[in-house]
Design brief:
Blueprint (H helix, E strand, L loop, with lengths): L2 E2 L5 H8 L4 E2 L1 H4 L7 E6 L5 H13 L5 E6 L11 H7 E2 L1 H4 L4 E6 L15 H14 E7 L1 H11 L3 E16 L13 E12 L1 H5 L5 E6 L3 E6 L5 E4 L9 H11 L25 H17 L17
Parallel strand pairs: 1-2, 1-4, 3-4, 3-6, 4-5, 6-7, 7-12
Antiparallel strand pairs: 8-9, 8-10, 10-11, 11-12
Helix pairs in contact: 1-3
Amino acid sequence: MPLIIPQTLPAYQALGEENIFVMHEERAHTQNIRPLRIVVLNLMPTKIVTETQIARLLANSPLQVEFTLLQTASHTASHVSMDHMEAFYKTFDEIRDQRFDGMIITGAPVETIPFEEVDYWPELCEIMEFTKTNVYSTLHVCWGAQAGLYYHFGIQKELLPQKMFGIFEHRVTRPNNPLVRGFDEVFYAPHSRHTGVRRRDVDACTELRILAESDEAGVYLMSTDSGRQIFVTGHPEYDKFTLDSEYRRDINRGLEIEVPKNYYPEDNPAREPIFRWRGHAHLLYTNWLNYYVYQNTPYDLSKLEALKGRT
């Protein structure tokens, strides 16, 4: 079944060219089923790239998904046209009275700034509070995961000695958890961040379970028992060349940046990178949609409010 997105959204054409099944809203209305309502709070500066990456993963499922894009009103996007934002993005005020099966909160390039000093932090807190009553399951990604861990559980981030940058080997620590069903015991995932969370702080939180981690990159995947709150410290949605683009961007800016680890053959940026995390990225999102959204969300979303307080 397809992902439902506007026919004029850039992702519609991009995914169609990849032979990924997407459906425009008019056609979806002719089908007598209720699609899953997923809202994506896109905090990344590269809006179109990120929305396409996430749309690609959400579309790789037998479930029909209605895709809503959300922006912060307290921060103006500067890397995309206002026409695009006005055409495809909503603000929190426009959706605050609605209910959703799932939400995705993306990363953001503000890791080294204290949470409270991020200009949209009060609005993000309001949105994260909203997820407790109006969203069944929320998937927090990279900085979004750090922000969620801090807001919901008081887990502080820490500045790393150097940027965690590259493709790292991870192992599943709770193989019976539905979120990692079908995962290999060892799998790869991208990271691109200057901060992280301490494992001991996660271990001290009785409401969280570590599902996958890396000896080098640290804790990767965490969840509450119910799956209402899920945290991913890396960027499984990244395309094959995303790290390459980030590396060359920083080089061109004259910044000190090391070659992303385990990415280019023989660590040679002149060679084409190896795409070896795509399968597990798709599996993670498919498992989330199936086991923690589709299987558990009430058909009548008005009943979500009764779930307040359950983590």
